[in-house]
Amino acid sequence: MKKFVSLLLSAVIIASMIPFAVTAANAAETTATAVSDEPVLVPDPTEPDTTVPETTAPETTQPVTTVPYVVTPNAPENFKVKETAADYIIIRWDKVKDATSYVISRADEKSNGKMGGYSVIKTIDNMDITAYKNTANITAGKVYKYKIVAKRTEGNITKTSASKTVSTMTKPTNVSKVKVSKRTTNSITIKWSKKADATNYVIQRSDEGSDGKFSAYKTIKTAKKTTTAIENTGLKSGYIYKYKVKVKRTSNSVSNQSTGKTVTAVVSPAAPKKLINKKATTTKIKIAWSKVAKANKYEVYRKEAKTKYTKLTTTKSRAFVDSKVTTGKTYKYKVRGIRTVKGKDYKGAFKALKTTTAVNGVNGVTVKTYLKRGLFSWKPTSGASGYEIAVKKSNGKWLVKANTSYTNYLTGKLKTNKTYTFRLRSYKTAGGQKVYGSAKTFNVTASNTAYGKSVSGTWVEVCIETQQMFMYVNNKLYCKTPVITGYAYNSRRTTPGYHCVLSKKSPATLSGSYGGSSWNVTVSYWLGFTGDGQGIHDASWQPNFGGELYKNSSRGSHGCVNTPTSAVAKIYSKAYVGMPVIIY
User: Fold this and answer.
1) 546 Rama class: left (phi>0) / alpha (psi -120 to 50) / beta
2) Are strands 419-430 and 453-454 parallel, antiparallel or unpaired?
3) Residue 276 to residues 223, 417, 430: CA-CA distances in angstroms?
4) 328: three-class secondary structure by DSSP
5) pTM for the complete prediction?
6) Alpha helix (H) residue ranges in 318-396
7) Which is it for the CA torsion 535, 539, 543, 544, positive or negative?
């Protein structure tokens, strides 16, 4: 019985030790405790004891083998790429507690674009190191996958964490060349060499500010791999822009860009907004122009008729005096701005001007007055395009009354006995600008007389020099019309003087002869004012009236005042025999 109890106790002790040994075995990769599979018999206490007593032997305890417990480290967190270049990659991770080493493996992209298998490239035993710069066997623009595990080793037992992976690509190499292929006053076209491994090209730009400083590069376009040039529009004239072309490659769901190839471009300066003939004499022309943004000097060119432009000067000024000119001659000038950057000139667009020297002033001015009007005449000025007549206002400023190509001018009605100051000057027009000769000024005091006689009520007055006729009714202007008087250069001239209506008839037949020719015509209205047959009448054979047609022998009359039918009808309706007709 004692032997049975002893065996039972031994069995209990051994059974209580088995779970620990098994647990230790499960925690080790290379060591395990062997456990007997033999069944343990436990006797039934209800059966009679038939055990033969034996001699009691001393009790003994069997030794138990134990295995140390090794913790499995966590996988490294925040495993990522810190930096890439064309020839290296830096990866980093967080420090792992309980780890004794890190093992890094790498898989490389093959030439066909597929990924190869992982191979160990580095084992790190210093747990203070949490980054690795991989430089061995690195190719630009290629995909690499990295895998990292943390390990803990105690004795001959090693525990390995789960792995972390990251994919990246080295920077591709740059295009070999970037250049400016075209520039305008608001655009730059850049061109670059093709890169075989490019998926795209990323174009960035840095802009010059008004203070001369440059902004950070910003992406302005991502171009297809087949594109090797872009035109960048909407730029500021004369400003500097820096361009950077980056090669972008995408493969196996990752991409990277090259560092970029740069080129500096200067937009052509704009043309001056304004170019004028500031001052001209008969021997000099002074031109001036507006400032061009960013230009630090200007080129001036000149062209004469049937010649090419020749350069006159390069100047930092915004004005130029040309003293090698001829009186009354027309010239064409053009000016452009230039910006110099690092010793190179970038030339802008031209602004052109057609202008002339001043013509000589007017000469031979005569002044006459008739019935409160001033009649001015002068000699023609060689090369003049026209003449300006102005009157001086009470505030001292000049009021332009007329511009004419003729050499005479008839004023409106002036106030009786008031003195007016007039200015007369010749000008020449070129390129839409008038260049004036020296001015003549003179005073005019008008009275209500003509040929020593005053007039009032209803009358007609005809100005031969200006080919105008006026009718006044009750001292108010009733009708004004252009006319054609007698031919100016022989006895066919209309006779100046104070006349009166001698005959009035509608219709009337006019007949006569002169110089071997004769006529017999019927007119609708006739107002005769001289005894030798001069009068006012309609002339349906005249296609137009006024100007200097009376100086043409085929258009000037034989002394009568040819008048448009509509106008002479009005005059005829108010005229009466004895009405004054003043011809001057």
Assistant:
1) left
2) unpaired
3) 46, 42, 11
4) coil
5) 0.68
6) none
7) positive
